Amino acid sequence: MSSDCPPLVKYILTDHAQQEMSRRDISEQDxxxxxxxxxxxxxxxxxxxxxxxxxxxxxxxxxxLRVFVDVDRELPEVVTAYRTSKISKYxxx
Length: 93
Fold this sequence. Notes:
Elements: E1 12-13, H1 15-23, H2 28-36, E2 40-45, E3 48-57, E4 61-70, E5 77-84, H3 87-90
Parallel strand pairs: 1-5
Antiparallel strand pairs: 2-3, 3-4, 4-5
């Protein structure tokens, strides 16, 4: 398994991902941007990759947007996404 996950242009948003995006106020445009040009990627397990980038929210607060994708499908499936202020917990230097 290579260390980097492939950039994605085509993918499916699962029902769960859409519900969580709505609840967490994450736009599909944000997801698209992260998947096509992530600042970092990491394998969570075989077949599942997390794509992440630092983003600035409203009042110039930097957060990390993490998008979990099952990439072992014919068309990769976005499983869930969330923002966190705990950047140092997940960010690899």
